[in-house]
Design goal:
heterodimer, A: 155 residues, alpha/beta, GMP Synthetase, Chain A, domain 3, 2 domains, four-stranded mixed sheet, three-stranded mixed sheet, 23% strand, B: mainly alpha, Ferritin, 10 helices, binds zinc ion
């Protein structure tokens, strides 16, 4: 079997199919944490930046990337961690934002809070806490339908 | 004295490690669910930052240790954290006052470190500052809410402030390690952050109807390791027991 070295674009396409382990409706590329893909000789180098420094998903993400690439026949993989520039929710793709909203998680906004309740779309919402079920989320509540919901907070 | 850069990185990592462990002691027993989640997330951020600081410390030391070895295999006299962060949790109000007094120093300090000439230090500071911004926002809100709350909550917050204030001064006292880093453009002069700190905490105490203690006497000896309070050793017996009893255990 002859395995050709896949193009960088092809690799990006594969990575766009790897789901985030905690919010599986969005992919790692939607999240904006894959910073670079490059060949260094026979080795494929993937540069990843963590979302939060203590996020327990980080090691799973690295494992998932490696697994996805190995399944497609890439043998030599090097994962590089890049801290700076620090990850920001500005790097979430437009598609990623839409997927979050459909899933029931209000996407981040520079204004510092959700535009509306992701369930009933009412703009009458209030913050319960800056912190939520995962490091990247805050807890909000809708005053119209009374449901609590997650907000993907800006960082 | 060992390498000043190694000492310095241990100080940064031990602050976040010891405070992170203290805050994690609330997991499952905080007053309400939202507070429990907020405290657990704060602890998680701090432990994550510890991995970065102590990871770099181990790299700089180049003696075959890693962040885990530094966290779990050093004895109490090798810890370099501020005395403030090792103080016991007390009630919820005292925990939040300790958090606020630390966050109000931590965020401006990290912001200054983002200009460090060591790109590795600047990168960790940049990453951490984003997380600590949320810590400070929350601890500020809580100190104001409880200070300017009921008579009971107000009294508890004032008692917490009176008890913890003697541990504030240590954050601003420099020594040979600080000077060494400052001369190389790696870290700021700790004393330079005091005026901004006094202004910030002063504004919050006013909003919280709390009275800043008049005496600025400061306990010292945490960041130099010369004289930790009795509490740190007890905490380490909890934090380190597994790696001490079963060295190199993994799961
Ligand atoms: Zn609603």
């Amino acid at each position: 079997m002859v395995i050709e070295r896949p193009s960088i674009d092809t690799v990006w396409g594969w990575l766009s199919e790897v789901p985030d382990p905690e919010i599986p409706v969005i992919s790692l590329t939607d999240l904006g944490i894959v910073r670079d893909v490059a060949w260094a000789g026979d080795t494929l180098e993937v540069t990843v930046t963590p979302t939060y420094s203590g996020c327990p998903a980080t090691t799973i993400i690295n494992l998932d990337i490696e697994t996805a690439l190995r399944e497609r026949g890439v043998e030599n993989i090097r994962l590089k961690r890049q801290l700076s520039p620090a990850w920001t929710t500005d790097w979430l793709t437009a598609e990623g934002r839409e997927k979050l909203e459909r899933y029931g998680i209000a996407p981040p906004r520079p204004a510092g809070g959700p535009e509306h309740c992701p369930l009933c779309k009412s703009p009458d919402v209030e913050r319960i806490s800056q912190f939520g079920s995962t490091p990247c989320k805050a807890q909000w509540r809708c005053r119209a339908c009374l449901e609590p919901f997650d907000y993907f907070k800006c960082i | 004295m060992s390498d000043p850069l190694f000492e310095y990185l241990c100080r940064m990592g031990d602050n976040t490690l010891v405070l992170g462990h203290r805050v994690s002691e609330w997991c499952g027993v905080a007053p309400v669910l939202e507070e429990d989640i907020a405290l657990a997330n704060t602890a998680l951020d701090l432990i994550g930052q510890t991995q970065l600081w102590l990871g770099l410390a181990a790299e700089v030391e180049d003696a075959g240790r890693d962040a885990d070895a530094l966290a779990f295999r050093r004895d109490v006299w090798d810890f370099r954290n501020l005395l403030l962060v090792e103080q016991p949790n007390g009630d919820f109000g005292r925990t939040m006052m300790r958090q606020f007094l630390f966050d109000a120093w931590h965020l401006p300090y990290l912001t200054a470190l983002m200009d460090s000439k060591d790109a590795r230090i600047a990168a960790i500071a940049e990453k951490s500052a984003k997380e600590v911004t949320y810590h400070l926002e929350r601890s500020t809100d809580t100190v104001i809410g409880l200070g300017d709350g009921t008579e009971e909550s107000h009294n508890r917050m004032q008692a917490a402030l009176d008890r913890l204030w003697p541990y504030v001064g240590e954050m601003f006292v420099g020594d040979a390690v600080d000077s060494s880093l400052q001369e190389r453009g790696l870290a700021p002069d700790p004393a330079s952050l005091r005026p901004g700190y006094d202004e910030l905490v002063g504004d919050v105490f006013t909003a919280a109807t709390l009275k800043r203690p008049e005496d600025d006497f400061a306990h010292k000896g945490g960041k130099t390791g010369a004289r930790h309070s009795e509490h740190l050793g007890h905490m380490l017996t909890q934090m380190q027991w597994l790696q001490r009893a079963y060295p190199d255990a993994t799961w």
